[in-house]
Amino acid sequence: MDLSLGCMYIGVMLNVWLYGFSIVQAYIYYVNFKNDKPLMRYFVLFLVIADSINAVFDQVFMYQYLVSNFGNLVYATKSNRAFAADPVMTGIIAFSTQLFFAWRVYKLMHSKIMPALIATGAAVSLLSAIGTTVGVEIVLFFQEFQKFQVVVILWLGFAALTDVLITGSLVWTLNKSRTGFAGTDDVITKLIRMTLQTGALTTVFAIVDLVLFLTSTTTLHLVFNLPLAKLYVNSLLSTLNARVTIGQGAQQYTMEGSNSDNARRGISTTRTKRSGAFRPGGNNQPNVIRTQVSMHDDVENGLGDYNSQDNFETGIHIKTIEETFEERHERDGMRGYPSSQESSLPVLEKSSRSDKDSL
């Protein structure tokens, strides 16, 4: 029973535990991102509903095994209708999540090749998940599930492969966006770390699930299979909600370099008119230059707030504000500061404020 109902029970417990995270993540999303496009908000709602249905089906078949048919050892060796619904529900959730990331890769890379590969892998995985559900309905006994192992290999194999393509594409694109400036690179490093963490979880669970299914006739693989749908939902929601934490951690740094250089790096800049400091015959007062480096997600309505260019969709927006030395200290109550200063370098100022409108 440990390697039949026991493994199933552990898998369902992990499913329910992760479902709690999904609900909390969805709540955080709807509270913090009320200005997201309606399509995006409806998409998150669809995932939450599908995730809830998956949790209900898992609870139903667990109840049927442990309560309704308690002590029935023959019933414990075969699947039922509620159990058979798990592969197709997991496939639908994974397909939807992977399509979202394919769209995101397209927005970042501006290339159709990699998103097309991701979408193809997701479609094959979904069709194979549907085939797995059909196989479970036909071959009822757990020990005989090896009869349709080909379709399971396609389902979990393409799911893992698609996750690897998504993670690799995002990490490669983000790494290319490094500028050499500490503030921007810190944000990019956080994004890369988050992408690796969320992508690695689903990939590892899918691979381990497949290996255990092929090497054992028990239900041991269900420990990793039943939580799979929840991992996909949590990976997407955590990616969306990362705009909160990364936005709060963004700092302001001085930026130099032309707009064309920044465009090649995938960085957008908004710069005010530079004063006449350090020019011949101009005011010798030094400037205080503040640059806002903030996370910018392509699902935000904030794109519409700018006279947007394509490079605004690459993930980083840098907003530069310049003011004179005297203006800065007048605001701080230092109006008596001497106006004739020797030429000096610009002063670097850091601030913990985040520009939420640019997220």
Describe it for me?
It contains 10 helices and 4 strands. The protein is α/β, with parallel strands linked by helices and 359 residues long. The longest helix is centred in the middle third of the chain and has 34 residues, at 182-215. It folds into 2 domains: 2-249, Up-down Bundle (Rhopdopsin 7-helix transmembrane proteins); 259-358, no CATH class. The chain crosses the membrane at residues 12-30, 42-62, 82-103, 115-142, 148-172, 200-224.
Number of alpha- plus pi-helical segments: 10
Into which percent range does the helicity of residues fall? 55-70%
Mean pLDDT: 74
Which structural class matches the secondary elements? alpha/beta
**What's the end-to-end separation, in Å?**
51 Å
Low-confidence stretches: 249-326, 334-359
Tally of separate domains: 2
Report strand %: 5-15%
